[in-house]
Amino acid sequence: xxxxxxxxxxxxxxGFSLFGxxxxxxxxxxxxxxxxxxxxxxxxxxxxxxxTADPVIVNYKGDYxxxxxxxxxxxxxxxxxxxxxxSRSFLRPEHKVYDDLCAPSVWIQGDTMLVFGSTYxxxxxxxxxxxxxxxxxxxxxxxxxxxxxxxxxxxxxxGKLYMYNGSSNRYPLYGVELNRKTFQPIGTRKELLLLDDxxxxxxxxxxxxxxxxxxxxxxxxxxxxxxxxxxxxxxxPATEFSGYADGVAVADNPLGPFEHQSLPLSYKPGGFxxxxxxxxxxxxxxxxxxxxxxxxxxxxxxxERRLGIWPAGFDRDGTMYxxxxxxxxxHYLPAKASDHLKSGFTGWMLLNYNKPVTVSSTLGSYxxxxxxxxxxxxxxxxxxxxxxxxxxxxLGALSEVKAVQINYADQDVTFLGKQTDIYHQYKLWYSTDGxxxxxxxxxxxxxxxxxxxxxxxxxxxIARFIKLExxxxxxxxxxxxxxxxxxxxxxxxPAAVENFTVLRxxxxxxxxxxxxxxxxxxxxxxxxxxxAPDKLYNSIMVYQANEYWYKGMDKEKPxxxxxxxxxxxxxxxxxxxxxxx
Length: 581
Fold this sequence. Notes:
Elements: H1 2-13, E1 26-27, E2 56-60, E3 63-67, E4 73-77, E5 84-87, E6 105-109, E7 112-116, E8 126-131, E9 136-141, E10 152-155, E11 161-165, E12 167-168, E13 173-178, E14 185-193, E15 218-226, E16 229-236, E17 245-251, E18 259-260, E19 274-283, E20 289-296, E21 305-314, E22 320-322, E23 331-332, E24 349-350, E25 357-359, E26 380-381, E27 390-408, E28 425-431, E29 438-443, E30 452-472, E31 479-488, E32 501-504, E33 512-515, E34 524-530, E35 538-543, E36 547-550, E37 559-567, E38 570-571, E39 578-580
Antiparallel strand pairs: 1-23, 2-3, 3-4, 4-5, 6-7, 7-8, 8-9, 10-11, 11-13, 12-15, 13-14, 15-16, 16-17, 17-18, 19-20, 20-21, 21-22, 24-31, 25-27, 26-31, 27-30, 27-31, 28-29, 28-30, 32-33, 33-36, 34-35, 34-37, 37-38, 37-39
């Protein structure tokens, strides 16, 4: 009995719940990282906040290493879920800038990992390591002759090394071959790719792709080779918008000429957390492809951002794709060789969208239902960060709960810069009647910074109410942008959507107006689209609406669409695929 009590105490104080499990099978975007509080001159005054962007993940010796903008370090993981931060500055003392490794390039050359940050100066080194877990680095090159913003390096099968870079709404992406020993250019760099927003609607600037305030930006190069073809990926049209995406252009040679794919590769304009731009493609330990990219908040300032990871790959015709359907719902982590054309979505539905919420207190206009409205841009805030502040979500009926995601918001935070000793502590409760409560997860002893904590339950529970109780906040008020409960409801799936129509204007064939009949018991819809009836690789999640203005088409191609309805119990059958000429 004594031994059992000791084991139970150790388990509780480790920060895990009785229902939690140490080996995670699923994940949920945004990625739960200890994002730094980034100071940006001229913007920070809008509100202190967390941010990072421009991610690269490389698979090195069976582990995954994640580098991103201005974090004063990097992360590594063995499973893409549990991330370990390594504190490191890649700036030399003479660098008097706020950007610490902005939009980095990371590549593997032989048995060595190399890192290079965005710069137009010649005194920024290329760093190298054969033991990055232990923060063991040295300079491979003290000064690099050719710099550039948003660089990416690529080692071809023949051993040749190339660098790609560019970040502009006037100038193209560039490419150049480098000497793989000295890293100096061989010849002059070559102009590779420009956006063509007059043809490809998704490349237009603005939240609604109709803003002429600025020309769109092309940036964030990344190269992947597959079956002898070169896939040059790029970000556009701007990081502030829900349509932030990565496009891809294909060539037979590493320096082109390149031809755009009509559809963006990574595209997530709808749902809780939107955007999927400026990223990188990598393979897991089973050779499955994944894409990591930047998600948008842009509330405290334009550059408030998070990261997301999605399944990706190439179809039998060589078309590169990424699966963002249900892209911020729970998905399976890699565990075996998989066909990413088949969804990795768990099927666990959102159980508490716009359901009743009660709270301990409210700060100003940051009202309770902001925590369940499926927008990361809005949030509820308690009046304080005191222990005992709480938020309670009513699922509306008894449901099978499989997982919970807790998304903290930055309200009245005081930090700037990377923090390595902060943490969240909380208790998560469940109840069938709102009166008798049981612990779902106890993280009152947690010592990790978990701004987007995701709790996958070892065993599902039947509950109607979920309650989050604050124990400790690292800074600011107790504020939640999303208390998201996933599992299965006890009712019926929604009926199929009727009268699904796509009206494509002749005046501007980049644009369409999509309409459908409302399904009574549906809270959302997934619109699937593509340039062939069997290649519907882009998707848009729409909440509480029966229309959508889609302005992202290639005006020279026909498009194909279908739709499904969504509720707490599952998804309807998809509608018949229709063609929009």
